[in-house]
Design brief:
Two copies of one chain form a homodimer. The first copy, chain A, is α/β, with parallel strands linked by helices. Chain A has 16 helices and nine strands. The first copy, chain A, has a single domain, classed as TIM Barrel (Alpha-Beta Barrel). In chain A, strands 1-4-5-6-7-8-9 form a seven-stranded parallel sheet. A two-stranded antiparallel ribbon of chain A has the order 2-3. In chain A, helix 15 links the parallel strand 8 and strand 9. In chain A, helix 4 packs parallel to helix 8 and helix 11 packs parallel to helix 12. At the A-B interface, helix 10 and helix 12 of A face helix 10 and helix 12 of B.
Amino acid sequence: MAEHLFLRACRREPTERVPVWFMRQAGRYLPEYRAVRAGATFWQMCRTPELACQVTLQPIDRFGFDAAILFSDILVVLPPMGLEVEFPEGGPRLAAPVASAADVERLAVPDPADELPFVMEAVRQIRRGLADRAPLIGFAGAPFTLACYAVEGGGSKNWEKTKRMMFGDPAAFRALLDRLARTVALYLEAQVEAGAQAVQLFDSWAGALAPADFREHALAAARQVFDHLRGSATWARGGGVPIIYFVNGVSPYLDDVTTSGADVLGVDWRADLAEVRRRVGGAMAVQGNLDPLALFAPEDRLRQRVADVLAAAGGAPGHVFNLGHGILPATDPASVQIVVDAVRELSSRG
Amino acid sequence: MAEHLFLRACRREPTERVPVWFMRQAGRYLPEYRAVRAGATFWQMCRTPELACQVTLQPIDRFGFDAAILFSDILVVLPPMGLEVEFPEGGPRLAAPVASAADVERLAVPDPADELPFVMEAVRQIRRGLADRAPLIGFAGAPFTLACYAVEGGGSKNWEKTKRMMFGDPAAFRALLDRLARTVALYLEAQVEAGAQAVQLFDSWAGALAPADFREHALAAARQVFDHLRGSATWARGGGVPIIYFVNGVSPYLDDVTTSGADVLGVDWRADLAEVRRRVGGAMAVQGNLDPLALFAPEDRLRQRVADVLAAAGGAPGHVFNLGHGILPATDPASVQIVVDAVRELSSRG
């Protein structure tokens, strides 16, 4: 049996059409997700394999996406490191953010296979539930993005505390990134061991950095994760699962990201995909990049936007269609179907 | 007497060193600003020429910046259009945001020379107070950025309402941009008439757009402003004051912005200034782009960052040193002095 379309596209092998999945495809825009969410908190859903499995499969059942992605949150690794997280309305909050070099020294580098068994169990259950209909993507937050939350204590407009540490005490900041990178590397390795068939690292806030800081901090720490993963026996046993590096706001760093060691570059909606392909297409597959807000356009205009993204990417091989950021809760599922259908029709080789 | 350094740099003429000013240089990081602010609301300061003049001159007196910029707010044009604005803690709020094509039709296109006389009086007072020590930059919000506030009713993470109108009812959105562009064009013309020696258009939120949407909406509306201004008798009488277009998050649009009709591209800190110079340097001067958070670094590292920005820009002609975004309130004024001194020392031609 041929390998999955999505996995072949990640490897820049020829495919009969462009595969499609959406970031946050298991989410609040789906009524069946909201039904599950009504009976559990977000954090409970992350920590209960049956619920995580259930919502991961929902968009596969409904739309037939070409890949499933584990339902979880990038912050699940923080509590085992010693940083408790709450999820009140308005976004995650840390009770005791990292404020000094001494705080960094106190952080553990846990083995997530032991500390986050519910994630590994979710991966196993999802693999069974998928029954090979689609491959499963595991994921983690990138070290820089996790550092932003760890230092800031939550979301932020300017990441002022984070950058004050980065600029004011770079040694402490690098030590923080190192602990996060080691934890994340073990975490992704454990997900692959449990059955993840690809992994994506989310660098949601790397786009807040000047290019030199991106190279020194975000990119170097992501590379540390990927180097560990590629050097592991688990990764080799898994046949070398594709590694996706999503950088939100990647445009200023296109000359740098090819050195990350990832197979696929996840691209936000602000980048011109034709330029991305020109500059990194020889080294990486690209994944993206429809503006999630375009799903609020009428059908004809939405289909045109899908066609524009496909045209900019230049078609297969080496393009995975996705949104340029997570789908928004107010999105109409009918618009998702329009995009999935349009990608299939418009990218098929006759 | 030779024309001011800053104005020559804007015109890409040879200069003996790189001029420097900071976005939001008249701001809360200065104790003398906070003293004025203690006796008046932000909005009162914008509407009282004596106070606006006083704080505009403070950073010139203290640091000798090479340009002054009018103290005001980009939202002052909205009330005369029919959109009332409040400034509570946490940022501006509109009582009745624009929600439909009918709301757009109701918006006035006022003549700001009549409706905002306090701004014009501030410009005149500042010119007298400067006594030609430095040129005065007038400014306005770009139509797209003003549309974001007008539709959203305040700041936003995803600009969901704005983009829902942009994607869902593009005709109404273009009509909104048209009214804003006509108002802003008259507003900048009135500032030049009153004595502004350069103007800057702030497109703070244009960086939320995919390149095609940037071209169709943000850039087209900015061009409308610049075309009007260049076609006005006021502009010709003023000798053609330099026009600066600041686009926050400009990296994805570097192939497009040269068609804006501005003389100078204002660049955020995430862009590689060497790349910007390669791609737009033949058509525009560039202004930027130190990360405002770099001012929290120790002196030696801060000086190195200044040197890096100067090196990336390749020196004069055609470079105006600035931050890549507004200075933050928590900044130490001593760090500002370090930057100003470093620019002067490092960019001087021996």
